[in-house]
Design a protein that fits this description.
One of its GO terms (molecular function) is isochorismate synthase activity. By secondary structure, the protein is α+β, with helices and mostly antiparallel strands. It is built from seven helices and 19 strands. Helix 2 crosses helix 7. The protein starts with a helix and ends with a helix. The relative contact order is 0.20.
Length: 353
């Protein structure tokens, strides 16, 4: 594992693109180190490599397998210090702005513009002594059940995250996705009661996915909703799996699913337009998606795609960390509570800095 991180440091010092990641509940580290600094794109999702896609637009950046060196390493024990109780001063101006944005969303939902909208904010923290490797190590050991990654391209920037949400897993014509929504603090148990607002919000996500994939699928099965722990918070989750039609392809499925109501809203177009008009900042790759596309399985004739929604993430730039957090807003949302939820979610990244 030491050699793996030496390779990361070398790639970083040479200003060459790379991604390192660890899948949920796995002990294997994977690194894809690009041999040049070109910008490649996933045009039709028939490419092989690691894709990094924005919330809005179609600049799906690809670290291509054929232009990269693949490294793998097993995780070893790590003694890291993650201070769960670290405190950051709250910014009253940020709070006022976000609560006012949420109230706009509540009003628009109540008047029937959409059923739900996901509104977000960006928080900037000074980071004079950032060390990529130590932060990434803290991340993977703090959040064993998340998809943890660090992605870098000299022409785009450095992004780090620990996301609980899978967008899509597919092999041949089989696929798996999830409907994730609703948030509350984890208090030593996952046996919790959920309020009507959260249950409704999560059902919107499930219904949206089922409605939108039915023309592309020939078989679909869903689980009952259950509680999932993600870092210091809980969510409601429903598993959805099935088989695609013979003439359906990966690009169609991704374009139908992304952005999901869990990161955008419902209906998709009206909520996305509201976000672009009212958030007053560019989400960039936050609430986009990332992951392996068409990864060839060792000694098998199959390839797999495994994509995640880019939540609980931050961008590192100019000795600053730009943290991104969002909340699902319905007609029953209370702005002050949504602010508190956004603060709780921001702790996922703050704990490892």
């Amino acid at each position: 594992m030491i050699d793996f991180f030496i390779k990361v440091k070398q790639q970083e010092s040479q200003n060459l693109p790379f991604v390192i990641y660890r899948k949920p509940s796995k002990t294997k580290l994977i690194g894809l180190f690009q041999k040049n600094d070109h910008l490649y794109f996933a045009e039709d999702f028939k490419e092989t490599g690691f894709v990094f896609a924005p919330f809005n637009g179609n600049q799906n950046i690809l670290i291509p397998k054929k232009e990269s060196v693949l490294w793998e390493a097993e995780l070893t024990a790590f003694k890291g210090n993650c201070d769960a109780n670290i405190e950051y001063p709250e910014n009253n101006k940020d709070q006022e702005h976000f609560e006012s944005l949420v109230q706009k969303g509540v009003d628009a939902t109540a008047s029937g513009v959409f059923k739900k909208v996901v509104l977000s904010r960006k928080e900037i923290i000074d980071l004079p002594n950032f060390d990529l490797v130590s932060v990434f190590k803290k991340l993977i050991y703090s959040y064993p059940d998340a998809f943890c990654y660090c992605w870098y391209h000299p022409k785009i920037g450095l992004w780090i995250g620990a996301t609980p949400e899978r967008l899509l897993k597919a092999s041949k014509k089989k696929f798996f996705t999830m409907a994730l929504a609703g948030t509350q603090n984890y208090e030593d148990t996952i046996d919790v009661a959920w309020e009507k607002k959260e249950i409704e919000e999560q059902q919107f996500v499930t219904d949206f996915i089922l409605d939108n994939i039915k023309t592309l699928t020939r078989e679909v099965a869903i689980s009952s909703p259950y509680t999932l722990k993600a870092g210091g918070v809980l969510h409601i989750k429903t598993d959805i799996e099935g088989k695609l039609n013979k003439d359906s392809n990966m690009k169609q499925v991704v374009s139908v699913l992304h952005p999901t109501p869990a990161v955008c809203g419902l209906p998709k177009e009206s909520s996305r337009n509201f976000i672009l008009e009212n958030e007053k900042y560019d989400r960039e790759y936050y609430t986009g998606f990332l992951g392996e596309i068409n990864k060839k399985e060792f000694s098998k004739d199959t390839s797999k795609t495994d994509l995640y929604v880019n939540l609980r993430c931050m961008q590192i730039t100019n000795k600053e960390a730009h943290l991104y957090v969002g909340c699902g807003i319905t007609k029953d949302s209370i702005p002050e509570n949504e602010w508190k939820e956004s603060v709780n979610k921001s702790m996922t990244m703050k704990r490892v800095l």
